[in-house]
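Q: Convert this sequence to structure tokens.
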Amino acid sequence: MKISLFKGILIGAFILGALIGLFVFATYTSKNSGGANAIGTVVIWGALPSAEMEATLVAATGIDPSLKSVSYVQKDPATLPADLASAIAIGAAPDLILASQEELQPLTKFISPISSATLSQSTFANAFIGGAEIFTMPGGTGYWGIPFLVDPLVLFSNRAILESTGIARPPASWEALTGLVPNTAILTPSRQIMRGLIALGTYTNVHDARGILSTLFLQQGVPVSGYSASGNLSANLGLSTSVGRAPGPAVLGFYTQFADPSKVSYTWNASLPDSQQSFLSGDLALYLGYVSEARYLRAANPNLDFSVSVVPQPSTSQLKSTYGLIYAFMAPRGARNPAGAYQTAVLLTNSAEQIVAAASTGLAPATLTLLSSIPSDPIATVAYAEALYTHGWLSPAPLNTDSVFSGMIGSVISGRLNLQSALVSAEQSLTAFLQQ
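A:
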């Protein structure tokens, strides 16, 4: 079969881009891949803020002029799969998608994966954080995307509150955190909460409840979702174990105790404002949120003196883990410039470009070489440290996950279901969403 000149050029360009990508990943250099016109026009749709990504591209173009025709369009993560489907249908697909693993499962039907022949397993593992394995296709046949940045969950602390109660530093373990409730939370005789220690126990008014619950499950070795031997994706909330006590009920019981007025750990309830706003107003000593929120918190209340530290871990755990958003570049079907898109993704994971991307966004790089260094900024130091043990799970669309988790938490704190029954119901609902 004869190949047209145009197809031959396109295939040749793609192969060249793949070879360049392998060289970059294998050597971890920040050298550019060609002249100023090597990439061409590339349009990126992404879930990160446009101002931060535009600043990244401007700085990256200063490093490598071949990125000069790369542009970025911010998209709502909730509508990104639908927007992409519509664009593909009318022949107007972008060249790259930048999204986290929370959007991955709904996006996979619209993504052209990278084969393991182009990007080998050893190259991927040596280049990126362990949590980036979530972008591996079932069976290890390839990758859904090239990891870019990491937004880990962190612990924000109101220094004034901690210092006034004699706490020198934020708690490093969940057990230590629970022990701070009686001395830090302020309750009226009728058990009304005037000041809370931390927002845990409810769902709708806990700003990052999805990430917090995911962290607690992952820290107990609960994968939340996974592929079966037959290749089906299903939920796993830790309802059973081969040894000892099942971790799922323990996780759910630990989380909901903070909203139980009968418990000494009671420090939060559903009548309180959104936890992020409570922290901003000085009514909350500790706040669990993503490191990307640091800039917003500082701008929203310049008088708030807060610090950022790593997320607490179980005191008995020998391995650290936290949940975070791992962003990756993915190539959609119908892209007009797939070779240029691949080269763009590769260049933006070079060391120099990763440094400017992390600085522009306030996130951490996904590449291991940069995470071995310690940044001068104290918040970046925490983000870099946590990126190494940040993980995620293949979830349904975030709104669907929220509906399941919210129902699970609500049924427990209302007394409608016990821990086991609530987990069974949630696991079944998550599986149904995952298999749609």
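The radius of gyration is 23 Å.
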